[in-house]
Design goal:
The complex is a heterodimer of chains A (about 500) and B (about 475). Chain A is α+β, with helices and mostly antiparallel strands. Helix content of chain A is about 40%, strand content about 20%. In chain A, strands 1, 2, 6, 7, 10, 11, 12, 13 and 14 form a 9-stranded mixed beta sheet that branches. In chain A, strands 5-4-15 form a 3-stranded antiparallel beta sheet, with no helix packed on it. In chain A, strands 3-16 form a two-stranded antiparallel sheet. In chain A, strand 8 and strand 9 form a beta hairpin. Chain A starts with a strand and ends with a helix. Chain B is α/β, with parallel strands linked by helices and about 475 residues long. Chain B contains 15 helices and 11 strands. Chain B has helices at about 5-15, 20-35, 45-55, 100-105, 150-160, 175-180, 215-225, 270-285, 300-315, 335-345, 350-360, 370-390, 415-420, 425-430, 460-470, and strands at about 40, 70, 110-115, 165-170, 185-190, 210-215, 255-260, 290-295, 395-400, 435-440, 445-455. Chain B has an 11-stranded mixed beta sheet with strand order 1-3-2-4-6-5-10-11-9-7-8, with helices on both faces. In chain B, helix 2 packs antiparallel against helix 3 (about 45-55). Chain B is globular and about 70 Å long. The two termini of chain B are about 25 Å apart. Classes of the chains: A alpha+beta (about 500), B alpha/beta (about 475). The interface of A and B includes residues 54, 58, 91, 279 and 286 of A.
Amino acid sequence: MNNLIKGTKFEWETIIGLEIHAQVKSNSKLFSSSSTKFGSKPNSQVSLFDAAMPGMLPVINEFCIKQAIKTGIGLKAKINHYSVFDRKNYFYADLPQGYQISQYKHPIVGEGVVTIDFSNGESKDIRIVRLHLEQDAGKSLHDQNPAKTYVDLNRSGVALMEIVSEPDLRSAEEAALYITKLRSILMYLDVCDGNMQEGSLRADVNISVRKPGENYGTRCEIKNLNSIKFIKQAIEFEAKRQIGILEEEGEIEQNTLLFDSLIGKTRPMRNKEEAHDYRYFPDPDLLPLEIEDNLIQSLVKEIPELPDERKKRYINDFHLSNYDSSVLTSEKQTSDYFDKVLEVHNDLKGSAKLVANWITSELFAILKKHSLDILQSPISPEHLGSLIKLISSDKISGKIAKEVFEEMFQSKESPEKIVKEKDLIQVTDTKEIEVIIEKILNDNQDKVKDFKEGKTKLLGFFVGQAMKESKGKANPKKLNQILLNKLK
Amino acid sequence: MEFSSITETLKTIRSKKISVEELSKIFIKRIKDNKNLNAFIYFNEENIIEKSREIDKLNNNLFLKGIPLAIKDLFCTKNMPTTAGSKILSNFHPTYESFVTQKLLNQGSVFVGKANCDEFAMGSSTTTSFFGNTINPASPQGKQLVPGGSSGGSAAAVAAKLCLGATGTDTGGSIRQPASFCGVVGMKPTYGLCSRWGIVAFASSLDQAGIFANSIEDASILMKEIAGYDSNDSTSAKTIIPDYYKNLNRDVRGKIIGVPKEYTLPGISDEINTVWEDAIKLFEKGGAKIKKISLPHTKYALPTYYIIAPAEASSNLARYDGVKYGFRSNEKNSLDEMYELTRSEGFGKEVKRRILIGTYVLSAGYYDAYYLKAQKVRKLIADDFTIAFKDCDFILTPTTPSQAFQIGEKEEDPIKMYLNDIFTVPASLAGIPGISVPFGKSKEQLPLGIQLLSKHFDEQTILNAGFYLEKNNE
């Protein structure tokens, strides 16, 4: 795939690496038992430890460790049997201890891989450098009072996983695919809720440009992006900015940037004099983390089927296309819905493509129109399967099916019940259809004459009339067949 | 009655010859009569009486019923402010009780006050406290000697019998050195034996709670009560706590005593070496065998300590920023300015010196040369002890290189001040238990102490040896 960007003078390649901060799905914080619930009253979820009261000590939350290990397994990564929590020292009002407990030299998870899928069916492996656990900071609220800043420590100490990729990404599009895929894996694993709006998933983007074949250029880091749209915009802007400088024979200054989504531009976050020396050192309040093989093995057993495996299964077992499989598996909920349809209706396995189409077109459309997600769908997988069976067994026509579908969405009733109550069963009985056709032909003898004289376009008219007469219930295939016979 | 020992006082209380309230009143009077010592940062008569009345109603079998104790002001206490001897925490009232002090409260003891200490336990003289100097009760007429530090208030209070025992913390000698200067028993147990939860942190990998008492028997009783596993401290040890008091045994026959050759240092006063030799001879007389041992990395202990402890302190003290609690400077126009002024005004000179040292040794480019190297040397020092204890049951050394010095004497020379810890720091780095037992007197008739060191979690051995030393110290 050619990702080169044309400047005014040269072609340029964008080199991107992502650091994703994913909030660990856990009821309590990384080193305290306070709740992690989002959106609570400020400072209502703060333990003595979270507020850095004198003499308070961290106690590691085992569940968070397990979540990190599961993530490592899901990223096909090396789980390190020995890891260390370090202190990253800096002053900020929402960092109560004056340091963040993180992992520096010895992270819990080592090298792994995430495979991204392109719409043309091709794939690419993005290498993961490491995953480490760390505490989130609190929040400084600058908009509560014109003269004051308030601090909310509810988020202080919540567990984050920082997942660092190699600079393997080459375009904004690839970066978007990568974060989408990573998010999908995290949600399949149930280790992160993936809610970007609430900040459960945030990205720092490292970006540089070079002429193809040359060494990496100087990179800049864009901090704290919380939507895929902004990530793409920020990368596109920043790549162009760097190319502009380089084509004017300028030099890129290594810098930390912020993306202003209102104007779509990046700008420097701090200047060099403020550059931090974090003075990392092992946290003496915590012992090194030693993970035994037994624990890893027991967690391997808890790993659910992940998107890549599911995709393979859809292609192999249901003969779905690469594209359809990717669309279905990208969101676990969608894929679970699809699986449920086929689980309840075993006999639909041969019609998996039809099921996939109904989900990705009709169901997605109606859910989107009503701003619902698939878990909130009034149409259950069981009912959707029943509907599809009514279609594939010729009980109702495709056109009727869409009406029934609408009705199912409104009433949550089963399609069988709707079809029965509204008397929508397709007429497949030859005699019944013959009666209707006889009537239409009788009523329109002049047109029959015209037809026989060569005005074959009138066939559509007869079909329409007969369909109308049957209230849309006549099997179109049969109707056509019988009509043609009668008109001979 | 004299009321100078825990064992005797417990008997008197249990036999109802005196109520806890009456007992407390005796100690309140002693404290008031000795205000000049400035042993306490916080002392509240009414609270003590009120608490004593409550305890009078409690079960008679509580292990420390009515025993008056001083609490070093580094332990967070719910009903008394906690300052760590610093201006920056001068208005701090914890809403929680430290693990160790809670255990003492659970056994019915009465806290008579918060004992003075060097600011954030950084010092060997209790002269860095924001709340003034504590005077060594052993000071001769016309002189004001330091009680040692950092737990100087605790040591002085026990020596002057203002209480029957006290808690302290020892990071590099902060219990053993003041115990020696004041002439009381001071014990720092194995790192991890007592929970650090609720103790204001100085250097987390070295800080350990311990006790002061007027006798080995009393020390054994208190030691058992403060020890024990705490799931809220990840470095706390899951180990069974023996009944040190019941197990006391002063028979030293056949014991092998290690005497490290590296502790014979130039510049150490003759009287210290004489007392050391006297102690050795006394143990030999009791049937113990003396073995010359080597702890080859001893000379690196002090520099190693003065890298590791400040490094951890520089990070531990970052939380005192004026944002959440404690002192905040009034002059402030920006967040950075608030930090600067709050910390400049809130911390004393010695604390600032150590924060600067600690920040320096952890900085990019210096970390490997200082902190990392110090950690490696620390391991070597710990290994020295492990090897030595293959050949001996415990190690015997002087506690301090000199008798108590005068207030102000070493103020301008921090290196001289740091040398006070030369005999105590190696055990801190190794995490092994140590005890200072009063033994002998200087020419000026000031107290001196002998330090006994043993293997991890082998507190009993040095309590026993101390018991022997104490009984024969006439």
